[in-house]
Amino acid sequence: MTESLARERSPLAAVVYQEAERVDALFDALRRHFQAQGLRVGGIVQTPCEETVFALHIESGRQIDLMQNLGACAEGCRLDTRALAEAAGLLAQSVEGAPDLLLISRFGRAEAEGGGFLAEIGAAAGAGMPTLVGVSAKRAGDWQAYAADFAETLPPSLEAVLDWWDELAKKPGA
């Protein structure tokens, strides 16, 4: 196949992972790898701890606790929507800063329901910004409904992401 007939890679890619896979470690390794190459990496990644989940804004180093304490015997979603909105604001700043690579470690229930980081993912995609989004396999259908054929689907491996990046870098004007 000639180069002109090769499928063009999308700058928006979902890293689809199973719950047992360590996607947060992968995103951290990607961040370190690209920063070591002198690239500007931005976005929000998660750092799960034993009893909570923190959103880490890459550019500022700011951590936001995304979980709320509902008290003993409480049931329901522990996601703190105010904290998520705060993280989305930081992610919007990342998009405005136009990093070389934007990392968003989760597309979850909030995004599937039309909130969370959905506007920022759309803004990055609309700008043609190279963006990696972590999508659990249980949310892959929701992601597909959102992104359709506009996004790549990658396995959760450093090699797959680096191959995607290398192909993007070969595009004219990249």
Description:
- Helices cover 36% and strands 22% of the residues.
- The protein has a 7-stranded mixed β-sheet, sandwiched between helices.
- α2 packs parallel to α4.
- The N terminus is likely disordered.
- The chain has a single domain, classed as Rossmann fold.
- It contains 6 helices and 7 strands.
- It has 174 residues and is α/β, with parallel strands linked by helices.
Fold-level CATH name:
Rossmann fold
Output the structural class.
alpha/beta
- Give the amount of beta strand, in percent: 15-25%
List how many beta strands DSSP finds.
7
Query: Residue share in helices?
Result: 25-40%
Q: Provide mean pLDDT, rounded.
A: 87
- Output the number of helix runs: 6
Please trace the helix and strand order, writing H or E for each element. Answer: EHEEEHEHHEHEH
Could you list the spans in which at least 5 consecutive residues all have pLDDT below 50? 1-6
Radius of gyration, in Å, reads 16 Å
Number of domains: 1
Summarize the model shown:
With 174 residues, the protein is an alpha/beta fold. Helix content is 36%, strand content 22%.
Topology readout:
Layout: E1 12-17, H1 23-36, E2 41-48, E3 53-57, E4 63-65, H2 81-96, E5 101-107, H3 109-112, H4 118-126, E6 131-136, H5 140-147, E7 152-154, H6 158-169
Parallel strand pairs: 1-6, 1-7, 2-5, 5-6
Antiparallel strand pairs: 2-3, 3-4
Helix pairs in contact: 2-4
